[in-house]
Design a protein that fits this description.
Blueprint lengths: L16 H10 L2 E2 L7 H10 L6 H10 L2 E3 L9 E3 L1 H6 L16 E3 L4 E4 L5 E8 L4 E4 L5 E5 L4 E6 L2 H17 L6 E3 L4 H8 L13 E4 L3 E7 L7 E7 L2 H14 L5 E3 L6 H10 L4 E2 L1
Parallel strand pairs: 14-15
Antiparallel strand pairs: 1-2, 2-3, 3-6, 4-5, 5-6, 6-7, 7-8, 8-9, 10-13, 10-14, 11-12, 12-13
Length: 283
């Protein structure tokens, strides 16, 4: 049985050529049997006592049924849309419920509550093997990783989320040593201005921003748990490129600590170089 061809024409939201390329390479497509119209989705929400978030309906209309197959049909590595999760059996009883002190506390599926803020959220998708996607009333997309009990704010909308993952995939391909360095400081713009990095408009919004050159990929990543707290992520082609960016950041934010993904390619070299530079760094 042939799989539908990836096509942006199947989706309602505006997406860039970069996403088109990512979809084609990763065989991302829209399964029309796993999405539904407004009336059916409203019925499903009412049946579960869940509120009607306008953005959840918009996601279903624009991207519902979007899927990238995983190792098993029931466990796609990327899936969007509440109705698709119903088709996959996510509304069936079973599985362990998070503890009351978890970062995300489930109530009646598909509802959950972000512990740090108390905001209600709706389960709207899957991303990677161990990640669940949730959307709040404003349309912000979060990933919850149960194994780590960690919530990450990914983007201010579903379309920005897709732009982000396509851009990050492009950066990993372009930069052989793609271990990230994270600073607990909102200084992505300072790096971009100091090193003349252009902003990637189509993948940036009021919450998450990205700047990129052939040698550097810099991102502003907000915290899911504390308003106003942001991290700056730096991915570099070389150690020297990282140090240029790190110096620009620490000039604006002296004493900022860094965390390096030492388990990824180039991570250990970057960790050692930052320590030699006198920057406080954790693994």
């Amino acid at each position: 049985m042939s799989q539908p061809r990836p096509s942006l024409e199947a989706f309602g939201g505006h997406l860039s050529e970069r996403v088109r390329t990512f979809f084609a390479r990763e065989r991302v497509f829209r399964d029309a049997s796993r999405t539904c119209g407004f009336e059916r989705l409203a019925e499903e929400l009412d049946r579960r006592g869940a509120p009607w978030f306008d953005k959840v309906f918009e996601l279903e209309e624009d991207f519902g049924g979007l899927v990238r197959r995983g190792t098993h049909p029931k466990t796609p590595s990327l899936a969007l849309g509440l109705f698709q999760l119903i088709c996959l059996g996510f509304d069936s009883p079973g599985g362990e419920e998070p503890e009351d002190d978890s970062a995300l506390v489930s109530s009646t599926w598909p509802m959950a509550r972000l512990t740090a803020t108390g905001d209600p959220m709706v389960h709207v998708g899957l991303y990677a093997t161990e990640g669940d996607l949730y959307m709040n009333e404003a349309g912000w997309l979060f990933r919850y990783i149960p194994m780590l009990d960690r919530v990450e704010l990914l983007a201010g909308s579903a379309s920005m989320f897709l732009e982000r993952i396509a851009l990050e995939d492009h950066a990993r391909s372009a930069m052989r040593d793609h271990a990230g360095t994270f600073f607990l400081a909102d200084e992505g713009l300072a790096i971009a201005q100091a090193l003349d990095l252009p902003i990637i408009e189509e993948a940036s919004d009021a919450l998450v921003k990205h700047w990129m050159s052939p040698d550097l990929f810099v991102s502003r990543l907000p915290s899911a748990s504390a308003s106003g707290i942001c991290r700056t992520r730096i991915v570099s082609r070389t150690v020297e490129d990282l140090l240029l960016a790190a110096r620009a950041l620490t000039q604006k934010h002296p004493g900022a600590r860094a965390t390096v993904e030492t388990y990824l390619r180039g991570g250990r070299e970057r960790y050692d170089a930052l320590r030699r530079e006198g920057i406080a760094v954790d693994e």
